Amino acid sequence: MNDQTSVSHDATLTLHAGAGPREVGLPASSPPVMATSFFTHPDAVGFSANDLNEAAPHFYTRWSNPTLALLETRLAALEGGEAALSFTSGMAAISALFLDRLSSGDHLVLSNVCYAGVAELAHDILPKHGIAVTAVDASNLEAVAAAMRSNTKLVHVETPANPILRLSDIAAIAKITHAG
Questions:
Q1: Which alpha helices (H) appear in 17-154, and where do they start and end?
Q2: Which of 29, 56, 151, 173 is most exposed, with the fewest beta carbons within 10 Å of its own?
Q3: Residue 170: which domain range?
């Protein structure tokens, strides 16, 4: 694909991915943005996340939301991915990642320059759950390699690191993590 074709393809995905097929002769329109907390009758789903399954309709916005589902579908299409997840904040995304991927006995290698909330989660909360954390200058590949342990399950790097804009070589760090 040339650059112009790629831009056109991405623009089409951005506008139409997840919208379903159009009927010939009907006007093109985008799905509505749903500005509400509830999407169906209260009896359609029990009021507990434990009642949800794959076939459950969108019910409560914190569990599922048609507007966010469409955003996730379009992001996945743009990135060529199987699926995508959206979160209300970066901190929510990072917390979900850490809490899903790390368990007691695991080790996290963390850039020593990162968002304050991430540092607080890593240094103050994760150790209470038996997760070891090593902070490292992620721009120094030797330091990253030296921080790796047999129980390292995750390496978290922010680049450029705010506020000093330190850069880390993500591809080189990935090679280090996969070699261990």
A1: 66-79, 90-101, 116-120, 141-147
A2: 29
A3: 90-179
Q: Same structural domain for residues 70 and 101? A: no
What CATH number is given to the structural domain containing 129? 3.40.640.10
Cβ contact 154:109 at 8 Å: yes
Q: How far is CA 3 from the centre of its chain?
A: 27
Q: How confident is the model over 83-122, as pLDDT tens digits?
A: 999 998 999 999 999 999 999 999 999 999 999 999 999 9
Decide if 85 is inside a domain.
no
Cα-based angle 50, 73, 161 (whole degrees, multiple of 5): 90
The total number of residues written for the chain in this structure: 180
Q: Which residue is listed with tokens 């916005």?
A: 61
**What are the residue ranges of helices labelled H in the chain?**
3-16, 66-79, 90-101, 116-120, 141-147, 170-179
Q: Report the alpha-carbon distance of residue 97 to residue 172 in Å, rounded.
A: 21
User: By C-alpha distance, which of 151, 89, 144, 150 is closest to 115?
Assistant: 89
Edge-to-edge strand ranges of the sheet holding 152-156: 132-136, 107-111, 152-156
Measuring CA to CA, how many Å separate 143 from each of 22, 74, 98, 103, 110?
54, 38, 22, 24, 11
pLDDT at 133: 98
Q: Are 160 and 111 in contact (CB under 8 A)?
A: no
